[in-house]
């Protein structure tokens, strides 16, 4: 399934979840067609690619699913913005400043000259990011992440999705049983120092979702202020109280 010139499609893993609930395996690639360029190539010093995420979803027993949803950059920009708002450093040197020097300071990502994010896994992450750009941008006809195209200054997503009907290959029962065996085998590995358990793709996100549904979404002061300013521009009153009520915050 090749789609081009879309608006922002949101969290990529959500589409994998929907496919899994229809008993399909999915592999999805996305680029931004020249807008939202954030990541330096391995060995480069400035922004040349977007975060170019990939998502893989597999249905499992009990109407559940495993979903890998990840950017090919070592960190998502949203986490950089959160660190900037909280005025804290990143845990590692995930960024390059505008002069190509490694840094853990989120301020330098947004300061002129703009900084960039490095790919995860060095040359391997960069290689995957580059191929994602080709599959989702060039192959769909929606353009890759070079700035010399008509959509370079617009939020445009291009997507290539591979959807697999399991029953055309193996039985559902076989897939579930084999995934269960693999899961048990992997989770039974002796734990490294500092680890209490081995988590599968998507397990942290599921736990976080359940926690947020129960306890609300924590927001830093800067984000609340930003929401308040936007809300007041469209005529909302008592904005901070409304935000806290909606997010179940005390």
UniProtKB/TrEMBL annotation:
Keywords: Oxidoreductase
Oxidoreductase as UniProt keyword: yes
Gene3D superfamilies in alphabetical order: Hypothetical oxidoreductase yiak, domain 2
GO molecular function terms noted in the UniProt entry: oxidoreductase activity
Keyword ATP-binding: no
Family of this protein: Belongs to the LDH2/MDH2 oxidoreductase family.
Name of the protein in its database record: Ldh family oxidoreductase
Organism: marine metagenome
